[in-house]
């Protein structure tokens, strides 16, 4: 899956406030980060499981905080951050990665 296919799939799965950050020139970790907000922990787990199944990537990893406010899916060149609204505000990855040089 490419970054636009993942964004479209997140939209189909009713994720909200989907943002793609281009990070290739800011880190060696990934070329893109996709941020998405969900309304429940159940939706977060469902989206993560769906994307992992559908990605077809050999290198994939998922991790979530014990309180399940934020889930990270590592698909190699693309990292997907799925967060609750509170986590999205408190962590503010948009500002962190937008201001990096």
From TrEMBL:
InterPro entries: Iojap/RsfS/C7orf30, NT_sf. Coiled coil: none annotated. It comes from the Bacteria. NCBIfam families: rsfS_iojap_ybeB. Belongs to the Iojap/RsfS family. This is Ribosome silencing factor. It comes from Candidatus Synchoanobacter obligatus.
């Amino acid at each position: 899956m490419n970054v636009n296919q993942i964004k479209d799939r997140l939209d189909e799965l009713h994720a909200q406030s989907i943002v793609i950050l281009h990070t290739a020139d800011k880190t060696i970790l990934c070329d893109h980060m996709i941020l998405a907000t969900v309304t429940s922990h159940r939706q977060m787990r469902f989206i993560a499981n769906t994307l992992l199944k559908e990605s077809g990537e050999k290198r994939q990893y998922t991790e979530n905080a014990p309180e399940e406010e934020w889930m990270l899916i590592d698909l190699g060149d693309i990292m997907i951050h799925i967060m609750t609204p509170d986590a999205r505000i408190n962590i503010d990855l948009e500002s962190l990665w937008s201001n990096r040089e």
